[in-house]
Design goal:
Largest sheet: 5 strands, antiparallel
Number of strands: 10
Strand content: 25-35%
Number of helices: 8
Order of helices and strands: HHEEEEHHEHHHEEEEEH
Low-confidence stretches: none
Radius of gyration: 22 Å
């Protein structure tokens, strides 16, 4: 990456120093939490955080672009791309210094694009959204029989589902790192599954989707 396409950075020696200067200009209390150095190129990186939110900023290599992302509660909800370090500082201040939601972020800053899941997380529908996402994912057809039952179960449907390879996993929280004190479901063959304890991989049940649901409910009750 040619550092000269980023004169603001070349002048002060690092992305973090350049960004901190912009925060000062707009009277923001934010500061970067990770120090970088031009000697570490070809890759430069900065991180800014406040409470349950943070953003990471990368630099494009061939053309001048600052590339921020926007996280809340451990979930990435949007990405952006701007040539202006001043606009970068403003958007970071807007996201990190308030409780603004993703829609207001993208409405105010046209260079920011929300991820598909952002609205569901803004509206606190992330559990329902993720269940339906897995249900309609053709690459997850091997666990669909279990998902079709679990999504209507009064207990299991309240847990946050996620997949790991072929496994269907459950978490008591909706952000990474997920909890690992809940059982997992592993497809063995056509409509045959194993229920295992995720913390020690012990098999506690085996059978068709309906039997799996019974095993899971026994564990949760």
């Amino acid at each position: 990456m040619t550092v000269y396409i980023y004169p603001e950075i070349s002048k002060v020696g690092s992305l973090t120093k350049a960004l901190d200067k912009e925060f000062e200009k707009i009277h923001s209390s934010l500061t970067c939490t990770i120090d970088d150095d031009l000697n570490k190129l070809p890759f430069a990186y900065a991180r800014v955080e406040n409470s349950n939110r943070y953003s990471q900023i990368y630099l494009a290599e061939e053309k001048k672009f600052f590339l921020p992302d926007f996280w809340r509660d451990g979930v990435c909800l949007a990405h952006g791309s701007t040539e202006s370090i001043n606009e970068l500082a403003k958007v970071l201040d807007y996201w990190l210094s308030s409780d603004n939601d993703t829609k207001s972020l993208t409405d105010k800053f046209q260079f920011v694009t929300a991820n598909k899941k952002a609205i569901a997380f803004d509206e606190k529908r992330e559990v329902e959204y993720t269940w339906n996402l897995i249900l309609n994912d053709n690459s997850r057809a091997d666990i669909r029989s279990v998902v079709e039952l679990a999504i209507n179960d009064p207990v299991l449907s309240k847990l946050f589902p996620f997949t790991s390879l072929t496994r269907l996993c459950f978490s008591r929280c909706t952000r990474y790192p997920y909890t690992h004190d809940t059982p997992i479901v592993i497809p063995i063959s056509a409509d045959t599954y194993e229920v295992r304890l995720s913390n020690n991989d012990v098999v506690v049940g085996r059978g068709a989707a309906q039997e799996v649901l019974q095993w899971l409910n026994q564990i949760y009750h």
